Amino acid sequence: MPMSATESSSQGAKPAGPSNGPSNGIADALVDEAMPEGFDWRRMVQRYPWPALTLAAVGGWMLGHRRGAGVLTALAAFAADQLVDHVNQFLDDEVL
User: Fold this and answer.
1) pLDDT on residue 9
2) pLDDT tens-digit map of 23-80
3) How many whole angstroms separate alpha carbon 96 and alpha carbon 58?
4) Are 87 and 95 within 8 A, CB to CB?
5) What pLDDT, on a 0 to 100 scale, did the predictor assign at position 96?
6) Alpha-carbon span 92 to 81, nearest angstrom
7) C-alpha Rg value of the chain to the nearest Å
8) Residue 84 needs a FRET pair 20 to 30 A away by CA distance; which of 9, 44, 46, 70 works?
9) What's the CA angle centered on 57, arms 56 and 58, to 5 degrees?
10) What integer pLDDT is reported at residue 17 of this predicted model?
């Protein structure tokens, strides 16, 4: 017999959510790789959203201000590569 949500949470089961599952994207993988082993950055962002948002905004501004052209070039190359991959998957053939 399946347990209700209250029964499972009272027995120590973690609720489903983004911090409990595997990484969902490239950004998650990059942040996971950059952070020290054992540091749960997802929990920190959930617990302290405003400082996390401020840190991300300041970091983005500094990165764009100092290395804007290089970042833009890398993003354009990445976007073009992803577009080619998706078109090839859609057409089910290596066209591009």
Assistant:
1) 43
2) 468 777 877 888 888 888 889 999 999 999 999 899 888 888 888 888 888 889 989 9
3) 38
4) yes
5) 61
6) 16
7) 20
8) 70
9) 95
10) 44
Distinct helix (H) and strand (E) counts, the chain: 4, 0
Scanning the structure block, which residue is given the tokens 């073009």?
A: 80
**Number of residues written out for the chain:** 96
Q: At residue 62, what is the residue type?
A: M
Letter for the amino acid at 23? Answer: S
* pTM for the structure as a whole: 0.46
> What is the distance between the alpha carbons of residues 68 and 11, in angstroms, rounded to a whole number?
50
Amino acid at 1: M
List, as one string, the DSSP characters of 55-81.
Answer: HHHHHHHHHHHHHHHHHHHHHHHHHHH
